[in-house]
Design brief:
- Belongs to the ATP-dependent DNA ligase family.
- It catalyses: ATP + (deoxyribonucleotide)n-3'-hydroxyl + 5'-phospho-(deoxyribonucleotide)m = (deoxyribonucleotide)n+m + AMP + diphosphate.
- Its EC number is 6.5.1.1.
- One of its GO terms (biological process) is DNA recombination.
- The chain is α+β, with helices and mostly antiparallel strands.
- It folds into two domains: 189 residues, D-amino Acid Aminotransferase, Chain A, domain 1, CATH 3.30.470.30; 123 residues, OB fold (Dihydrolipoamide Acetyltransferase, E2P).
- The protein contains seven helices and 18 strands.
- The strands form four sheets. Strands 3, 4, 5, 6, 7 and 8 form a six-stranded mixed β-sheet that branches.
- Strand 11 and strand 12 form a beta hairpin.
- The longest helix has 11 residues.
- It is elongated, with a radius of gyration of 23 Å.
Length: 347
């Protein structure tokens, strides 16, 4: 069994949240708390000891309410308050004055790209988008309430407390309880909702406390295979090595459109030799990859290739004709012509 983190075993006072100048007691769960994570599995675990929930395609968020102050914390310990003011306002209207919720910020009925538009520097643009496409916080765990922290309690107790908590007066449409089931077959049927923001299924052990930062839950996704054309790669400027391979598919317009990337982990030295004869080729003739990493914000150097190599890839989430996440390289397809790799595979 994993060790409970020191801050959970011996809770200390959280650092003061900006704007909180009252002398009332503060939450004993620190703002530095990391969300509990999930390990990817090929099959859902079965049995009475598991609860299944949808895995939503959004921004993970731990929401703190301490008196009159609300703090929305991202997975990377960044404040999300300015980007989702309607969610912060909804939490501020809850009658309970002190609580910590774990959840996912989503925009119902919209793609992940619409959600990403919120990460904008202009407050006026954020206000416009929040009115046009209001976000919701789908909550799936209660880590603390007015009565104190719950992180040491088993998830079965925390889930029961959460269901009671969302019935507290003052809840708005900005806060939604995640659906859940004890039946694995019912959870698998949810995968038909993948086009509506569902990214898979998360299985949670009912007897476990909240293991901050640990992979205690299990996540299940369905992977699709796509034959795509290698048209470029991102190069690590520091080492000169290949960071990601970039793949495309031909559209009805005859152009080669970017659909996704594949990180290079295994057999990196051998893979690095393959594109060398193809350097300075035509690359993507249609939609091209962006110049900045959405994860680091850093400019990425793309090397264009002559589109001759075909690979069979496995992707877990395809939306708007692109891979939502990185793909897996299964094998090279020397038996398939690049022009036969068409975009109807991801439509």
């Amino acid at each position: 069994m994993k060790r409970i983190r020191r801050e959970l075993a011996q809770p200390t006072q959280a650092p003061a949240v900006a704007g909180n100048t009252k002398s009332e007691p503060v939450l004993t769960i620190p703002l530095s708390l990391k969300p509990m994570e999930a390990e990817q599995v090929d099959e859902l675990p079965r049995g009475r000891g598991w609860l299944y929930e949808p895995k939503y395609d959004g921004f993970r968020c731990i929401a703190f309410r301490d008196g009159g102050t609300v703090h929305l914390q991202s997975k990377k310990q960044k404040s999300l308050n300015r980007y989702f003011p309607e969610v912060a306002a909804g939490l501020a209207r809850v009658k309970a004055e002190r609580f910590v919720l774990d959840g996912e910020i989503v925009i119902p009925g919209q793609s992940f790209e619409t959600l990403q538009l919120r990460l904008h520097p202009a407050a006026s643009r954020i206000a416009e988008l929040s009115g046009k496409f209001p976000a919701r916080l789908i909550v799936f765990d209660l880590l603390a309430g007015d009565s104190g922290p719950l992180i040491a309690h088993p998830f079965a107790d925390r889930r029961a407390a959460l269901k009671a908590f969302v019935k507290t007066p003052g809840f708005s449409q900005a806060i939604v309880l995640s659906k859940a089931t004890r039946i694995a077959g019912e959870a698998l049927n949810w995968l038909s909702e993948r086009g509506h923001g569902l990214d898979g299924i998360v299985a949670k052990p009912l007897d476990q406390p909240y293991w901050a930062g640990e992979r205690v839950m299990q996540k299940f996704k369905i992977w699709r295979t796509v034959d795509a054309v290698l048209a470029g790669y991102y190069q690590d400027d520091a080492t000169g090595t290949i960071d990601s391979l970039l793949f495309g598919l031909y559209g009805d317009d005859g152009l080669l459109h970017f659909v996704g990337h594949c990180r290079v982990y295994n057999d990196a030295a051998d893979i690095a030799k393959l594109p060398q004869p193809l350097k300075d080729g035509s690359g993507f003739t249609g939609r091209a990859p962006g110049g900045k990493s959405r994860w680091t914000g850093k400019k990425q150097k793309m090397v264009s290739l002559e589109p001759r190599l075909v690979a069979e890839l496995s992707a877990d989430h395809i939306a708007d004709g692109k891979f939502r996440h990185g793909s897996r390289l299964i094998r090279w397809r020397t038996d398939k012509a690049p022009e036969d790799c068409t975009i109807d595979q991801v439509s």
